[in-house]
Automatic annotation (TrEMBL):
Keywords attached to this entry: Cell membrane, Membrane, Protein transport, Translocation, Transmembrane, Transmembrane helix, Transport
Name the record gives this protein: Sec-independent protein translocase protein TatB
Subcellular location: Cell membrane; Membrane
Subunit description: The Tat system comprises two distinct complexes: a TatABC complex, containing multiple copies of TatA, TatB and TatC subunits, and a separate TatA complex, containing only TatA subunits. Substrates initially bind to the TatABC complex, which probably triggers association of the separate TatA complex to form the active translocon.
Family: Belongs to the TatB family.
Transmembrane segments: 6-25
Residue numbers spanned by region Disordered: 93-167
């Protein structure tokens, strides 16, 4: 928190001993300890309240939705990569064989390469559709979470204003 080393603490202690005096020094340290304890308690309470508000607002749901979208993205990109690799291998094998495009084998190899290309395009199209659907779901989840956060904020403000009016 404060970047104080042992030498700085020793200097502060000596100055406090000189300024306050040895008789009142334990009382000062006790007061400082109570103050620090209260400050830590208030910070802990604030942190707990913020975590509860975030949970009520649905932040955890949005986080889970984004994680699932990311996982889905990873699953989608792997088949696209596999299809791309298959097309590259087929094209390479056709060129490596130096087949005559007019021969039966050349026509068959060309047809297979074309089929592999069509499969790659279909896979990429499906992957894009999945990504679009997941992005739309993530946007809807984010909008819902924002609405929950706004509702939680309004509820908190209502509670705070009710407490203020009591005081």
């Amino acid at each position: 928190m404060f970047d104080l080393g042992w030498t700085e603490l020793l200097v502060i202690g000596i100055v406090a001993l000189i300024v306050v005096g040895p008789k009142d020094l334990p009382v000062l340290f006790r007061s400082v300890g109570r103050f620090v304890g209260k400050a830590k308690g208030m910070a802990r309470e604030f942190s707990t309240a913020m975590n509860q508000a975030a949970d009520q607002a649905g932040v955890k749901d949005v986080t889970d939705t984004f994680r699932s979208a990311t996982d889905g993205l990873n699953k989608v990109t792997n088949p696209v990569k596999a299809a791309t690799d298959a097309v590259k291998e087929t094209a390479k094998s056709v060129t490596d064989l130096n087949l005559d495009p007019e021969s039966e084998t050349g026509k068959l190899a060309a047809q297979r390469a074309e089929d592999a290309h069509k499969i790659q395009e279909a896979t990429a199209k499906k992957a894009q559709e999945r990504l679009d659907a997941e992005a739309k779901a993530a946007e809807e989840a984010a909008a819902e979470a924002k609405a929950r956060a706004d509702a939680a904020r309004k509820a908190t403000q209502t509670t705070d204003s009710a407490e203020d009016s009591k005081a």
